[in-house]
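Entry 14. Structure prediction run on the chain below.
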Amino acid sequence: MNVFVTGASGHIGSAVVPELIAGGHEVVGLARSEVSAEALAAAGAKVCRGDLDDLATLREAAAAADGVVHLAFKHDLNDRVKAAEFDLAAVQAMGEALEGSGKPFVITSGTLLLAFAAPGQLGTEDHSLEGGPRADSENAVIALAERDVRSSTVRLAPIVHSDLDHHGFTHRLIAIAKEKGVSAYVDDGSNRWPGLHTLDAATLYRLALESAPAGSRLHGVGDEGVPFRDIATVIGRHLDVAVEPIDAGSANEHFGFLGPLVVLDNPTSSAHTQQLLGWQPTHAGLIDDLDEGHYFAG
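Output returned:
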């Protein structure tokens, strides 16, 4: 299969591209810079120069491909709504190009949506939001199943971890703990975040591309829910700083843009996804991966 991949040189893409190529697929990766283009070429992929603002290029590349994996997202931490609007426009552009083709179209969402869709519950693939940032993209791609697109969305855990991760939430939590001299959690720290190893995520995307039924919501989750206190404890131990609770009212001041997120309870199951695709996470869980030390090197 000739696969067009956005975000191909990013954290997740750096694992998905080799996974697809090893699976016998050809990859055309979207690259907005020469550095990204060189990285893709070195990985054995072809290069399509452009970015998420270039909707004409997205449509053309999607139409020319046998399938699309959409990983890119403009992470504007100062305007998340605008970032989600850019994502929706990109999803709609590529979706329009694929209508009536029966081709696979896999996009990326996040499990943190389920903290609002299923508060106090174990989030499953059946839970969804009617609308909102990122939920709009998810719903748009699911709707493409009615227009002969084999569409699916992968909801990734908020922490996708491995030594391929260089800019994710884990790095930000570590940087905050270094800066503040304390690795903090909110209240009793019992709220849970799911996690997933990057290489397990890559396998999931390949399987979704190859065999996910049209209109599938899939969960990229290995650890169903790691208490935030446990994450803070490992970080504190490796940095040799205090591990302490803070009250919810201080979360925004302490964690900055992560403040509204670190209070969320987001236990999430991937049981249906595993059964549907024959997928099973096999790599290190979040706590074990943190304990390997690569996040704290240098």
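The longest strand covers residues 104-110.
Filed with the rest of this week's runs.
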